[in-house]
Write a structure and sequence with these properties.
Blueprint lengths: L8 H9 L11 H8 L4 H4 L4 H18 L1
């Protein structure tokens, strides 16, 4: 994983603004390589932290829209 923006800033900003933090998506060089090849990270790397993070974020958005 690459933390080009550092870590924790999104969560801190959400707390400062009084809004719920949804989560973060880690950057992975494999995401770029697969995208350049026209392939899906989520389809090809089911157990990657990136795929798990996308699923968690999507589940949270769905959960909030149902409330």
């Amino acid at each position: 994983m690459v933390h080009i923006f550092g870590t924790g800033g999104g969560r801190r900003t959400a707390e400062e603004q009084g809004i719920k933090y949804l989560g973060n998506i880690p950057l992975d060089p494999a995401l770029v390589a697969l995208g350049d090849a026209g392939r899906s990270m989520q389809a090809e790397k089911l157990s990657s932290p990136v795929t798990k993070a996308f699923h968690t974020l999507a589940e949270e958005v769905v959960r909030r829209n149902r409330s």
